[in-house]
Amino acid sequence: MSNPFNANEILKKVIKKIDTPLFTYSWINSYKYIYDDIKKMKVMIYFILFLLTIISSFSITSISIMTISKKTQEIAILRTMGATKFLIQIIFVYYGLRSVIVGAFIGLITGIITVLNFENIVFLLNKYFKDNILLDNIYYHHFLILKLNISDIIIIFTTTIIIGIIANWYPAYYASKINPSKILKEY
After folding, report:
1. pLDDT per residue over 49-106, tens digit each?
2. To the nearest whole number, what is the mean pLDDT of the chain?
3. Sequence-separated (6 or more) residues with CB below 8 Å from residue 67
4. C-alpha span between 179 and 75 (Å, rounded)
5. How does DSSP classify residue 157?
6. Whose CA is closest to 73, among 168, 175, 169, 173?
7. What is the DSSP string of 109-127?
8. CA 30 → CA 7, 34, 38, 100, 144, distances in Å?
9. Helix axis angle, 85-116 to 72-80, nearest 10°
10. Phi, psi at residue 145, to the nearest 5°?
11. Is 94 in a helix, a strand, or coil?
12. Residues of 27-42 as b/e, b for ≥16 C-beta within 10 angstroms?
């Protein structure tokens, strides 16, 4: 089968064409626990990716706050020149979002290259690490099927961008609340 996860649907089509009462079962029926484990693993991977994105957004937020604390004088000058609070927010969201988009693209390209070259990577790992515990004891790497799903890529990329916008909005809001008179009195 080209897609073993569609075994039940293929059996239903075959039964309709044969038009005789049959008792059929597929590997999904025989090994339902494996099929359920694969579904659970997919949900867990989505959850872990979501948590990694959230954790990364904290570092983006802290970097943005450090940048704002270094640029308070420039922000105060912009405010005295007539820049609105909204303009200050947009400037800092833009700079933060720029780094989020670059990071998301680098991660996307790295992930796609890794999935497309998975067999070569496993071959190199087996070649240079003869006693590789991870590959020998957990999965038979020839059975491990990796495929690119456009919907998964779009969901992950969109979620990363949305979380990046949210992570950058707080520092931008903080920058817009800077009082120019207090800052410029210090200098």
Report:
1. 888 888 888 888 888 888 888 888 888 888 888 888 899 889 888 888 888 899 889 9
2. 81
3. 92, 95, 171
4. 9
5. H
6. 175
7. HHHHHHHHTHHHHHHHHHH
8. 12, 9, 15, 45, 19
9. 130
10. -100, 120
11. helix
12. ebeeeeeebeeeeeee
